[in-house]
Specification:
This protein is α+β, with helices and mostly antiparallel strands. The protein is built from 29 helices and 14 strands. The protein is elongated.
């Protein structure tokens, strides 16, 4: 019998058993649809993550010390700590060697670590402003007196705010609390202010040491940062864009906050909560009436209303009180109560009060704890556990276009590599020169390269000239660091922790990694290269995990379909014993019986698998046009933008249909073998 006849009989059998065919077909169609749609979705996320990661921090390839204790993870370890990858001694030597590989376009030196800074509380800011004003010879008496009145008013407000609450300041003993009360009483008296102009340094120091610590403000900022060549970084990462301020000038030390971090962590607490509420109401369609999350933020704003009224001077308070009463249609005399009432926002008045805040209140408060142009005192710990600190100027903020609201992309702030080396604990040429200058002034000799460090490490190898008088040394390091520049040669010849490599064609990544590692062994560079996925650590492996789980689920679905096909064919073989036996009796070979069962399964697999694959393809094409909106800030990083657009891979359709045929072949074997064993004699027997 020819194949056409077998196909006709197989098609007839499929149509005769509609229920069985439908159940098995639905499972196969679902598996095919899920395979096409799911893999397209995961591939889309993988592409988005690749774009986000390679265009923000990793480049196509990362290199680092071949003998590193840990694998490189630019986003840090799972516990949040930076990965310990050691360092490579000379960027210049490494870059020169890698220039021999034609696939490499450029290399950007880097180092990632973790730092902290305390910007100071409200009183600290006012005191620093007043100190600068007194030292500015061009400052008018009128401005100075205005700032003094505002400072005195602030201290009076602090006294009112702490009245009856000294016992809540857990760090104060009963004796200290009594002294703090007396200090506040003294600083609000005329006696303290009468000679302020004459003794302003002494007065400001007293307020800074005795009064400012009474304001509990958990305003310590913790953040990750990347040290690099700022100009190279800007050029090689095309999504990089300055948002506020300006780019770090070429050859200058400096610092840039990521704008996401600046807006969500550095900004005034009440302002950033209002921003978050507005975003949730606009993007996620939440309401204050129904969302506990938004209600909690409103409650927090009310509880921290002091962060508004403590920053306002008497003149601003008087003007704002009138405007608030007009807005709220009230005649409240107590300004604190008025501010709390204003912050108790509802759905119907939120937008009006939000606009009022930024128009009338924000210009009179410290909207950002660190201002563009400020000198930032950064503190960090070296690998050995010692503390280091440097002072760098904040030039502005930056973002990566398309995924600017992503907390993952906003995970890093940026500084120049020279400052990074000092903060990380490496001796730069400038720091080494300063150490020698200090040694010379103090009469230290023959103490070696790390002499200054030896002074504090218990070393007994230091000698001094007995005829030298040890003079007090002015360690004006802050001034030198903030105002210092560096040369490109100094940057290139120093150490780096890791580096981003950009290729002419990213499809050659694996081959280039192999070449780099071989070159490193040949020329003893001491580096190893990894792909962007490996360099991204657990974030880079997420797509692999997602794809594995997806394919596992699809595999289980198709396995279930295969078992159902096997079971249904086996039952069909038993039910069609007489029919099969009769066929055998009139000359049908065992191969014919096998083909009959195989074509039945193939028909079901191809038809329903094709339907599922077609539906999946149509959905992918539609999503490719409209996109899937990112449901949150984290999703914008995975999507590399506000929406994820899927792309249909024709090869995926071929793979899905191949799997369908493979299932047909496997599922057919046992039932067909059982059917082939049915003899003509069995066909003549009566069924029970």
């Amino acid at each position: 019998m020819n194949h056409l006849m077998v196909l006709k009989i197989a098609a007839r059998n499929v149509l005769l058993h509609r229920m069985r065919t439908t159940v098995v077909g639905i499972i196969l169609a679902f598996g095919a649809l899920l395979a096409v749609l799911g893999n397209s979705f995961v591939d889309g996320i993988a592409g988005g993550m690749k774009n986000s990661t390679t265009q923000s921090i990793t480049g196509d390839i990362q290199i680092y010390n071949a003998d590193a204790k840990e694998n490189l993870s630019v986003f840090g370890n799972m516990d949040g700590s930076p990965s310990d990858v050691g360092h490579v001694d000379s960027f210049e030597k490494t870059a020169a060697a890698l220039a021999k590989i034609p696939e490499i376009v450029s290399i950007v030196p880097m180092g990632t670590s973790f730092a902290q800074v305390s910007p100071g509380n409200i009183l600290d800011h006012f005191l620093e402003t007043l100190r600068k004003s007194f030292k500015d010879k061009s400052m008018t008496t009128e401005v100075l007196q205005s700032q003094k009145r505002r400072l005195r008013f602030l201290i009076q407000e602090i006294q009112k705010n702490l009245e009856g609450k000294f016992e809540e300041i857990g760090m104060l003993t009963e004796k200290d609390a009594e002294q703090a009360k007396r200090n506040l009483q003294f600083t609000t008296s005329d006696a303290f202010w009468n000679d302020f102009d004459v003794n302003f340094e002494e007065k400001i120091e007293f307020l800074s040491n005795k009064i400012a610590p009474l304001i509990f403000d958990d305003n310590m900022l913790f953040f990750n940062y990347v040290g690099t060549d700022p100009q190279q970084f800007k050029e090689k990462f095309p999504q990089f864009e300055i948002v506020k301020g300006e780019m770090i000038p070429e050859g200058s030390r400096g610092f840039l906050f990521h704008d996401y971090f600046y807006e969500t962590m550095v900004k005034h607490r009440i302002a950033r909560r209002l921003d978050q509420i507005k975003k949730k109401m606009t993007a996620d369609k939440l309401t204050l009436a129904d969302s506990k999350e938004l209600q909690d933020q409103i409650k927090a704003n009310i509880e921290q209303s002091a962060e508004i009224y403590l920053q306002l001077g008497p003149l601003e308070t008087e003007k704002l009180q009138k405007k608030l009463n007009d807005l709220l249609k009230s005649d409240e005399k107590d300004f604190r109560t008025l501010v709390k009432t204003f912050l108790d926002m509802k759905d119907d008045n939120f937008q009006t009060r939000y606009d009022f805040f930024y128009k009338e209140i924000a210009p009179h408060v410290i909207l950002y704890r660190v201002q563009i142009g400020d000198v930032l005192p950064l503190n960090a710990f070296t690998k050995s556990g010692s503390s280091t600190s440097i002072n760098v100027k904040v030039y502005g903020t930056f973002k990566f276009k398309s995924f600017e609201n992503s907390p993952l992309a906003g995970n890093f702030s940026l500084m120049d590599l020279i400052s990074f080396r000092e903060l990380y604990g490496f001796l730069t040429d400038e720091r080494r020169a300063q150490n020698k200058e200090i040694e010379s002034e103090m009469g230290l000799v023959d103490v070696g390269r790390d002499s200054i460090e030896n002074l504090f490490s218990g070393s007994t190898q230091t000698t001094t000239n007995e005829n030298t008088t040890i003079k007090p040394v002015e360690l004006n390091f802050k001034k030198k660091v903030v105002g210092s520049n560096y040369t490109q040669d100094e940057l290139n010849k120093g150490v780096f922790l890791h580096a981003a490599i950009f290729l002419k064609d990213s499809s050659n990544t694996n081959a280039t990694i192999k070449k780099i590692n071989e070159l490193s062994k040949t020329e003893n560079l001491g580096i190893k290269a990894v792909s962007w996925q490996d360099a991204a650590g657990f974030i880079g492996q997420m797509t692999f995990i997602m794809k594995t789980l997806l394919n596992l689920f699809i595999g289980i679905s198709l396995l279930l379909a295969g078992l159902m096909i096997t079971n249904s064919l086996l039952m069909a073989a038993m039910n069609r014993k007489q029919e099969i036996g009769t066929m055998r009796a009139i000359g049908a070979h065992a191969r014919f019986i096998y083909r009959l069962f195989f074509y039945e399964t193939l028909f079901i697999s191809l038809v329903f698998g094709g339907i599922g694959a077609l539906l999946g393809s149509l959905i992918v094409l539609v999503i490719g046009q409209v996109g899937i909106p990112a449901s949150g800030d984290v999703a914008t990083f995975f999507f590399s933008g506000p929406r994820l657009f899927l792309h249909l891979n024709p090869g995926l359709i071929f793979i899905v249909m191949f799997v369908m045929v493979f299932i047909a072949i496997i599922a057919t074997q046992y039932p067909a073998w059982k059917a082939m064993k049915i003899s003509p004699l069995q066909a003549m027997q009566k069924r029970d």
